[in-house]
Design goal:
Blueprint lengths: L2 H18 L4 E14 L12 E13 L2 E5 L6 H6 L8 H6 L10 E3 L5 H4 L9 E5 H7 L15 H12 L3 E4 L4 E4 L2 E5 L8 E5 L5 E5 L5 H6 L11 H15 L5 E3 L5 H4 L2 E2 L2 E3 L2
Parallel strand pairs: 3-4, 4-5, 5-6, 10-11
Antiparallel strand pairs: 1-2, 1-13, 2-3, 7-8, 8-9, 9-10, 12-13
The structure holds zinc ion.
The site of zinc ion has 6 residues, from α4.
Length: 276
């Protein structure tokens, strides 16, 4: 094939795949709050006594016949007992407020395996669940071996993940910069957990949903790390926050995981902010 024809075909393919990706809507749905959280656990280096109120959020992305949730929240009582949560509404009930029935959620993309993000996967009975292959491998294996780390991981969620896999409902994403659905791309490297991921919703304009790879807008503004898998990962986290800004085209279009401000920055009714 001559080179010009090849270039032309590549161009046609690129235009075609861009045309295939729908223009998604994005909503942040707040299903609970945690008042008075220590700031230095969110922004590394923040003053020791400072406290901030944070939100528990799932993000609903709709388009092209898909109702995609980014993260699934949590609902088990052991966590609401252990952790001060106010204004709690079970994530499936919260998603209903946006007009989507739990059984109509087609996909749940899990940013990382912590209880407040993975603990709601059993609430959406027909969804395909997407998680990084390395995250799955680590938290179903090594994490529980001597020397492994499983802080913030609920053993019941691990069992649920394995069950979903045996039922054919789990998709293991292999690494960085992977388009998992038309116009939905996932990225690794921020190291909140062993293999945490964040997503870019492509469109006009594009948005990056960071989840806990960036807790607050303040992390972006002050270029300070969120909590990471290990201390040596903090610089990777800061590097990836800069990458998120680049991928979104603006810091205003990077949406942090637990920041209440997303419900002020974007038009909000009740628990739901319309990001796009
Ligand atoms: Zn979290």
């Amino acid at each position: 094939m001559n080179r010009l024809l090849f270039a032309f075909l590549m161009l046609v393919a690129a235009v075609f795949s861009a045309a295939m990706a729908p223009e998604y809507s994005i909503q942040a749905i707040r299903y609970g709050n945690s008042p008075g959280f220590p700031a230095n656990e969110l922004v590394i280096g923040a003053p020791k006594d400072e406290k901030v109120d944070i939100a528990f959020v799932v993000w609903l992305i709709r388009g092209g016949g898909h109702n995609i949730l980014f993260d699934s929240g949590f609902h088990r009582e052991k966590w609401t007992k252990y952790f001060p949560v106010t204004d709690f509404l079970r994530p499936d009930e919260a998603v209903k407020l946006a007009g989507v029935k739990p059984e109509d959620v087609t996909d749940v993309v899990i940013s990382h395996a912590h209880w407040d993000h993975l603990g709601g996967i059993d609430l959406f009975p027909k969804a395909t669940v997407w998680i990084q292959k390395e995250e799955f491998r680590y938290y179903t294996g090594e994490a529980w071996q001597p020397g492994g780390k499983h802080g913030g991981i609920d053993p019941d969620d691990v069992l649920q993940l394995v069950k979903l896999n045996t039922e054919g409902r789990l998709r293991l994403v292999d690494g960085d910069d992977v388009e998992i659905l038309p116009g939905i791309r996932v990225y690794t490297g921020a190291r909140h957990t062993f293999a945490s991921q964040y997503i870019r919703v492509e469109g006009n304009p594009s948005f990056v949903l960071a989840s806990d790879n960036c807790y607050l807008y303040r992390n972006l503004a002050e270029r300070k790390a969120s909590a990471t898998f290990s201390e040596v990962d903090q610089s990777a986290n800061i590097t990836n926050q800069a990458r998120m800004i680049e991928l979104a085209g603006s810091a205003d279009r990077v949406v942090p995981g637990h920041d209440m401000l997303q419900f002020q920055k974007f038009p909000t009714q009740g628990r739901i902010a319309k990001i796009k």
